[in-house]
Specification:
Radius of gyration: 24 Å
Helix content: 25-40%
Strand content: 15-25%
Low-confidence stretches: none
Number of strands: 22
Structural class: alpha/beta
Strand order of the largest sheet: 3-4-7-9-11-12-13-14
Number of helices: 15
Length: 547
Amino acid sequence: MVLSTDTVAEEFAAEDAERIPEAEFWTNEFTPGLAVPTRIEDLLIYELHVNALGFGENRPGNLQDALNLLPYLSDLGINAVELLPMSECSGEEGWGYGASHYFVIESVAGGRDEYKHFVRECHRRGIAVIQDVCYNHYDFNAARAEWQYDSTSPEQNTYYWYEGKPSDYSPPDGGYIDNGSSGFAPRYWEEIVRHLFVSSAAAFIEEFHVDGLRVDLTQAFHRDNVLHADGRSVPSANQFGIKLLREWSRTLRLIKPTVMLIAEDHSGWDAVTQLPEAGGLGFGATWFAYFYHNLIGDSDMAGGRARLIKNAGSGGDGPLDVEQFAGALFDSKVNKVVYNESHDEAGNAGGTQRTLVCAVNGAPLIGTTRDYGEARFRVAFGLSLFSAGTPMFFMGEEIGAQKLYRFDSFISNREDLTGGRVGNGAKMFRFYQDAIRFSRRHAAARSQEIDIIHVLGGDRVIAFTRSAGNDKLLVVASLRNQPFSDGYVIQTDASRLADGSWREVFNSDASIYAGSNIGNFGADVPAANGRLQCRIPANGFLVFQRL
């Protein structure tokens, strides 16, 4: 049966379902009084790999599984879901980042109609949909999708950038362009290639009604193009990569002015988040891996970063480099998406573990070891959530996922999300729920105003304020293995901590989260002349509100 692209199956995944016009399908897309967020700074993002759902099934996860998960996500309190790439790719266990057919929703996941049903149901629940897309390389293994589509001669290989002629190199593949991704660079100078990416993105926005897009490894377009033969930079490829990204962002904003565009970009180039008319690329935010490496630090790419959770998980109470982390925390206020776990770190980077496992350096999660791990884990999420960036976390973190998630073995390491919620992960899920809902109620937690007022690596303590008008919060966190039961003094300039009473309104060490219930018990704590003294739990964080 040939399906018309201007109709949609009325029922989800129903054989021989009646098809209705697109306009009719989308008429009840939203729930009155339940707005879908339209600004990146208002998002709390749950990163979801659809194929990694389907726990207990002898198949990859699909959009039916994702639809079934939405009540769980609504209960959790997130307001945005970011999907790993959904364009058709080779193989049945899709990682997603080797797309082959940019206008086709992955058939194994359910296809075009089921994707639309998923987006519509998200919107009915007030959840925005951010779709990952990958344009920095093609899938070599996809049958005649892009590789040698119309010619076996490299210089005529329409979709791939090639410099010169094959006779210029030995071997002939020396003329292709590397860009730091897992394949040769596309031919950005070719107009039909740029149109391929721009038009497929436009379809996600216009036909599928997604609210935003996250682009994989954008520095591969504007900075990292080099000749495969010898690694020489190819400036023209960088320039045409910039041209592509500008055309892409301009087009999408014309179609949907509120579209949210996020770049995975680690270059530090300010222009990434500037508008094209100001010389920028047009993105609203970038992923902030520097924050992750300083906070968690299990990735081989962390280098000399603070690695707070990794180092704390090694035991002992020696100094931590809280000062370096404080710099990343402060920088989170400038158009950043921050996270304590992502698909990229969990799935790609060497040395990585899930956050809970990292928090005890891989030790068996039993008894007091698990207690220490969960306490540090709660601090990790709290520092992300109450940073000045847009918080994001990867699926399964909310139940303390432990299985190794890797791009090539995720099917055999799937987590039972709904089972974990009522099992060993119940108290962690409750913590995530409460922390998320608290942060959503406070404008200060969603603002970009942050002031780091106290940092002491020897004590493993950091304190910072968040502000939005009259709403003022003070966050105090410690990764020390003993509590400050007799009180800890925070001293800063009088102008940076308002005099008066600060009430403890959130405690990660509460017994309902399996904590030790050490804190200030909701009491009012006085501040005067920039000085405040409070009890701080071991491996915990507190949030105070200015009365």
